[in-house]
Amino acid sequence: MPSPREIAQSVRSFTRKHNSWFKDSIPLIASENVMSPAAREVMNSDLHNRYAEGLPGKRYYQGNIFMDEIETICESLAKEVFSCKFADVRPTSGTVCNLAVLMAIAKPRDKMTTVALSDGGHISHAKIGATGLRGVKTFNYPFDEDRMNIDVQGAMRLIREVKPKVALFGQSVYLFPTPLDEIKDVFSEVGCTTWYDGAHVLGLIAGKRFQDPMRQGMDVVTGSTHKTLPGPQHGVILSDLAKDGLESSLRRGVFPGVTSNHHLHSVAALAVTLAETKEFGEAYAEQIVRNAKALALALHTRGMDVLCEKHGFTESHTLVVDVEEFRGGAVVAKSLEAANIIVNKNLLPWDSSPIRPSGIRLGSQEVTRLGMKEKDMDSVAELIARVARGEDPETVKADVVELKRSFTKVHYCFFEGEEAYDYPSYDGDL
Ligand code: DSN
User: Fold this and answer.
1) How many of the other CB atoms lie within 10 Å of CB of 399?
2) Adjacent-strand bridge partners of 195
3) Nearest residue CA, atom 3 of ligand 1?
4) Tell me: the pLDDT tens digits for 194-212?
5) What is the mean pLDDT of the chain?
6) What backbone phi and psi angles, to 5 degrees, belong to 344?
7) Whose CA is nearest to atom 2 of ligand 1?
8) 22-32: per-residue pLDDT in tens?
């Protein structure tokens, strides 16, 4: 039996191995990112050890003199960056946001329209996730597989037929803006509350490079804050409070609804990230989309089946590749991992088996943050294509490590050019 000291040492050692593995890898998971040096500094502070239930100035604990300042700054930055009247920055993740909103605007047995999981909907929008937990009945929008987006006429028909309490939009495979302008007349017709989960595209919305859901009639916008918005693993709820009582029900949904203490260090890191977004967000969002398009085209040119060619592949950070001809998403994702290229297998709308999906999903946001530009997407595409075509991943890995050596620093932030993978550590073994 290993001793407690040996167990703790092995955890330290695995963590260090993880850090150096990622330093040597090309990170293409569409839902991840690296934080800036300043955000990491405040994240790794004593705030991490503290409690602050409630709101600034109205806490259930002493010790929050400075935290009140930080949270107030964070809330006003969120309202400013997303041009809205209300922000709650306490939810500890995107799914916690969604649970809080479900508590606030839906009751068990209410009806809600959503995007199906197989069409890229998020697990918290599904019966098997948060929505089911709240006892809400879900109805899925018809989906246009050719455009990888909800079908406008079908969605309008569904909303008219079902008359949902809530119409929820947003995807985890988010290639193109949701056609909200096209369907928004139907919202007032049936009187539903409208909700947009912008987790994946929050940084693109902030950078004015995607749609603007609040200006397109959405009552509530939720999102995690660590994807295209390159902050801490955390969440935010936004609203223009167009509906009576929304502010107090959203606040109650967060606390005491689904959180007791929120994560104070994450609120501080989010505040820094939002300040950096004000300064660098537009340039960052622009480059994310350019890189996603360049990666899609470079893969397509190499004979890979990138979806939505007719529509320009993507207008976001995400692209999806059907790799069925290369033995499917699970096999390809695993082979890429062996070559230090990190992606996830992904269900495509026509797949029947969730354990054998035919796609992989790639995101450009993290490699963009690490300084890659369009020409680097060509090199990345070549490495991916070599693995997909069956080359030994170990051979490709050597070239991945070589390429990645030039991309280990964080960009679009204060302290630009600091190392992304250097973390404080104590010398020696336990
Ligand atoms: N499941 C995550 C994703 O990868 O899209 C979002 O929570």
Assistant:
1) 15
2) 168, 220
3) 31
4) 999 999 999 999 999 999 9
5) 97
6) -125, 150
7) 31
8) 999 999 999 99
